[in-house]
Amino acid sequence: MGNQILWGMAPIGWRNDDIPEIGAGNTLQHLLSDIVVAGFQGTEVGGFFPEPSVLNKELGLRNLKIAGKWFSSYIIRDGMDSAAEAFHEHCKYLQEVNASVAVVSEQTYSVQGTSENVFLTKPFFTDQEWSLLCSGLNELGKIAETYQLKLVYHHHMGTGVQTLAEIDRLMDHTDANHVHLLYDTGHIFVSDGDYMTLLMKHRDRIKHVHFKDVRENALTECSKEGLSFLQSFLRGMFTVPGDGCIDFTEVYAYLLETNYSGWIVIEAEQDPAVANPLEYALIARNYINKKLLVQTYTEKGNVV
Questions:
Q1: Residue-range domains of the chain with CATH
Q2: If you ran DSSP here, which 8-state letter would residue 12 be given?
Q3: Residues 227-271: pLDDT tens digits?
Q4: How many other CB atoms sit within 10 Å of the CB of residue 195?
Q5: Residue 127 clears pLDDT 70, i.e. is over it
Q6: For residues 26 and 14, is the Cβ–Cβ distance under 8 A?
Q7: Interatomic CA distance for residues 245 and 217, integer angstroms
Q8: Which residues have a Cβ under 8 Å from the Cβ of 209 and sit 6 or more positions away?
């Protein structure tokens, strides 16, 4: 039996934690049922998800799993005691819903939720702040393990860990035993214009994957107009695989070749009033079936 890849669909196409008013009418039951209709095995926890016993019942009714949940860390701004206390609560929740990973992103000085031009404005950490962040993440990683979870760090537009150089620094100064990487195709492509270098350079640290596609014409317009991160995704910068410019056959082939095991979660921040969430989930599923899963049968020892 080879390595198991699980396919998930993020809730962000239905409802968005950063802009709660969009998709506010989409219930948990609606979201989870759409994910089943589109043929995915699970999802990540959204900010509107209920307490574990309620969520577990809805998941059980649909035979779905939880991959993980986003955690905004403020190690630099608030210190480790505060970050660790909040992270313990986060991990308790994830353990109760049988998740695999805790998705962590340092949000000190982040502009991702502001009106700042995300293409020109991002925070940079001092050497001292980098030291605090890396040692703090090592500690959070150890905390995650006590809940049978892996900490996966999410590089993200508008934050202090966005570019390949910044991801390199994070990987170089954190403990590979405790701090893993979430590889997000869309964020690194928008940031650096390249998505394969990161994958090949840090494949040994990658324990969770987000497949996010990019509409290149929308990216060009958003960059030219100096839009914020939120404005950019509302403009349609992100989409699901098969609807943008990223070649996921290359990405997926490399993951198979290197025996990746774990979740691949489809994630595309879009306005559900513009991009029908089920329609786009089905676009992604069709692309996966026709372009990606055909590769599985040519790669020895991998099972989907």
A1: 3-303 (3.20.20.150)
A2: G
A3: 999 999 999 999 999 999 999 999 999 999 999 999 999 999 889
A4: 24
A5: yes
A6: yes
A7: 9
A8: 182, 183, 184, 255, 260, 262, 263, 264, 265
Q: How far apart are CA 232 and CA 235, in angstroms?
A: 5
- Evaluate whether 142 touches 179 at the Cβ level (below 8 Å): no
Burial class (CB in 10 A: 0-12, 13-18, 19+), 236: buried
Residues in Cβ contact with 71 at an 8 Å cutoff, skipping those fewer than 6 apart: 86, 87, 90, 102, 103, 104, 105
The residue to which tokens 């502009």 are assigned: 111
- From residue 167, alpha-carbon distances to 17, 95, 115, 122, 174 in Å are 25, 27, 24, 14, 11
Written in H, E and C, the secondary structure of 31-70 is HHHHHHHCCCCEEEECCCCCCHHHHHHHHHHHCCEEEEEE
User: Tell me, what's the pLDDT at 298?
Assistant: 53
